[in-house]
Amino acid sequence: MLGHHYTHTFLETAVASMNAGCNLELSYGMRNNVFTHIPQALAMGNITLQMLHDRVRPLFYTRMRLGEFDPPAMNPYSTLDLSAVQSPQHRNLSLEAAVKSFVLLKNVRRTLPLQARDLPGKRLAVVGPFADNPRVLFGDYAPVPEPQYIYTPRRGLEMLPANVSFAAGCHEPLCQSYSRAEVVGAVRAADVVVVCLGTGTDVEMEAKDRSDLSLPGHQLELLQDAVQ
Q: Which residue intervals define the domain Glycoside hydrolase family 3 C-terminal in the entry (predicted)?
């Protein structure tokens, strides 16, 4: 609220937040953050002790439900070790979640799904800045996984019984430097073309807004060249 000029001081912000029902602060690790002014607001009579109790109660209730105050022996997660990280079971669950999260907007001529039995001898082209760049596949606030566990579209398609060709066209989402010849060469003889476009955190994220919804840089040109 201070940054948006709704209030002028941390004390005013603490009072306004408490009155609005807010009981958590993203403090950015500052030593003198907004909610450290709550004792001063209470002493000045800007908020009441009952209001403070009302704000704190759900926080501790949630922490109790999460088991934060339970003995370690009662916490089932305490028995986990590093062998659980990237275990086959978890990777299979991630794959299932990825498959179930796809959204198909159009299926012209019933092109999808591709059938593995029809692919031997077929030529697939996968093109675009998102086709084989693991770094750009994750959004804002995403974890940083081990590269060996990241399956780019190219890596996934190369597991199919087909001849797969690849061309990035441009190597970053901003797509300011574009090689039309590279893309046309990859798609010219292909039976199926997969074009991988988008934005990623290079283009948009928290505190980095966009003024329009257009594909960045030469990405639209890349798509048109692939289609033509």
A: 103-226
What is the sign of the dihedral through the CA atoms of 173, 182, 218 and 175? positive
CATH homologous superfamily of 103-227: Glycoside hydrolase family 3 C-terminal domain (3.40.50.1700)
Alpha helices in the chain (DSSP H): 10-20, 38-44, 49-65, 88-101, 153-157, 180-187, 219-227
In whole angstroms, what is the distance from residue 207 CA to residue 117 CA? 47
Is the CB of residue 190 less than 8 Å from the CB of residue 125?
yes
The sign of the torsion formed by the CA atoms of 82, 87, 91, 92 equals negative
Sequence spans of domains, the chain = 10-74, 103-227
pLDDT of 85 above 90:
no
Residue corresponding to tokens 């010849």: 181
CB 193 within 8 A of CB 127: yes
Give the C-alpha separation, 162 to 119, whole Å: 5
pLDDT of 226: 97
Q: Which residue has the higher pLDDT, 77 or 164?
A: 164
Provide CB contacts within 8 A for 139, sequence distance 6+. Answer: 200, 201, 205
